[in-house]
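hi!! sorry for the late reply, been swamped w classes. u asked for the two structures so here they r. pasted raw, havent cleaned anything up. first the sequence of the first protein and right below it the tokens
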Amino acid sequence: MGTYTHDLLEDLLGHGIFAVDGEKWREQRKTSSHEFSTKVLRNFSSVIFRKNAIKLGNILIEAAENNHKIDIYDLFMKATLDSIFKVSFGIDLDNIWGSSKQAVRFSRAFDDANTLTSRRFFDMSWKIKKYFNIGSEAELKKNMKVVDEFVYNLIQIKTEQMHNITDFLKTESGNEDILSRFLQSKYKDPKYLRDIILNYVLAGKDPIGITMSWFIYLLCKHPEIQEKVAKDIKEATKMKKEIKNVVDFAAYVSEGALNKMQYLHAALTETIRLYPALPLDPKICFSDDVLPDGYHVKKGDVVAYLPYAMGRMEFIWGDDANEYKPKRWLDENGHFHPENPFKFTAFQAGPRTCLGRDFAYMQMKIFSSILLGCFVFKLSDVKWIPRYRTSINLHIDGPLDIRVFKRFGLNNCEI
């Protein structure tokens, strides 16, 4: 990562795993690897993902019944933030309903801080602005104050809960959320916990919400593929009774059913190939080296690879590189066939391979299977052309307005 990138990211991510090297990185990598591999966290997370997918489904039912267009991008970003906060902190943010003014304020501040931090990569004067507290740096400081106050308050609440073990064991999440598990170990410093958790939030909110948004956009542009995905979901869930609401359908989305959704997995992966959440990934040379093509790099040089560009290169993916073709990921038996991570670089490769890859696929497949199993999606404006918003991640600039239509005789429901 190097000191250059660390300095750019430190105000937002502190000494979290995405902003450090050496022993701090190895320690967090080891701890995170253990957490992501635990059955407790996996089971707890899947329950949360289902609940939030159902909440989102109920909003879509209302939009379908009233023939209202809806910004699915905004909804996905809110739903994924709710999910990662519950998994990370064990606390219901309820951002999707906007019932908490503090949560809405945090969400906006976090998104703005993300965008402002990304601008540092292109603004050579950012340190001067920070020193004098002017312009974009003054705005970043204001947003980070909102973010930090919110996060530190949650850490204090969770710490107090754990001090009263009786109350703590009665809470819904118990010790299943990530923060509780860290607090039970040797990690007690609020600043370090803040850094770790915000890195989890960044990894679990934007990439999932962004990918789901691009996924729905591509399915709207390719209705024949949307129907193939819906068929794959229907066959995997093996429904045996009439579905009247989203909860009914979600009950069929078991772990076994998710594993059978090979075409859905391929369609999501093809989305990530064309629209990787992290379009550009810079690295700092640890020492002098020679790249495979013979180019010499020196210690401290910045070398960036671009998953966005690499995913569209014809000499890597063939003449149809710019086409959306989920079947490229399936073998002759219709089973998903993964590519070499040094070819499909969206999740990185080698020692820094994304630890949350399977975790991310689980969330995306739960959301996708429940929503596409219950609804048909169409663009509100078929001529609409999406634009990108400058940020660390590949955001859509502006709303993604769609219209939804019910696949079954769905009724609204509460959970």
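now the second protein. again sequence first, tokens right under
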Amino acid sequence: MADTDDLTLTIHHQSKPHTLTLPSTSTLEDLSNTIATTLHIPPETQKLLISPKPGMQKAPFPPTPLTTVLPLSSPKFKITLLGTPTKAIEALHAQSEETARRASARASAFAAAAKHKPARTAGSGGVHTLSDSSSSYTFHRLLPLSYLPRPERSLEFLKRLRDDPGIKAAMAKHKFSVPVLTEMNPAEHTTMESRTLGLNRNKGEVIELRLRTDAYDGYRDYRTIRKTLCHELAHCVHSDHDRAFWDLTAQIEKEVERADWKHGGNRLTGQDFYVPEDWEAEKDMEIVDECGWTGGEFVLGGLREDGVGMRAGAQGAEGRREMLARAAEERMRKKRDDESREGGN
């Protein structure tokens, strides 16, 4: 590993080996500075896991000679670097700023529509039933996101859902009256592990649906979205994903499909609902919702989001930045644990 003049070390970072050559008189501080210039990871974010001993070393790194701190003769000798490159940190900050910009634009759009918000009966909660007329059992306002491309197409999609014979029949039967049906911004409801397809706020105050593809270049399968809408309508009665909820969801799905079939809908398969291939391929990454959003208010102007699905205190642009940072820290922690176990073998 070393000769009289140089010391050659292999640094493992994100499962990739990197070979560094330093003078044999180099210190731990010199190694950190070399990593900063070659791998572009700032010293203050570096952590060096040296196996088998002395273990984890953190900044600030002391000027201790490497020959005295590294177990060079051990067959299990390994250096694992934990740290995020500068470009990745900058990308995370840019993503946080873009999310904040989108949230601000969305809040402005809702504020502009606030004066048109449908009236609600005093003390109303749960399922919104504005009158005994069947015409009240519908979505009273359709709200596409004006800051996303071609909102007029989203509006037509929402109209199609509202006017779907099956949806109309099911809402009339169960007396569902929902003030707002709106689209969901995919970027704000996507993580590395899952994608939220729909949300029901406060048992039918607002229902959000993921209409668009993640790349914003098209729209998802109509029947898949309608199936999600059936799921969210069931949350107007049941908040939790318990047996009663799933029974109601299945009932609504069958009612929607049956009514659509009577009005000329085309059944594509023998299943209750057609499930396209992309749904089957992606379903392990997707969640329909998180038992709805409850316990707070959805205010079109203020855009308060303090229900299930967002951690308490994580509101607005600052909250989203905190959530992104927390997610990045969690990924780093998992990677560090995996590398630590690997280094101990």
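hope this helps!! also noticed smth abt the second:
The domain at 6-83 is CATH 3.10.20.90 (Ubiquitin-like (UB roll)).
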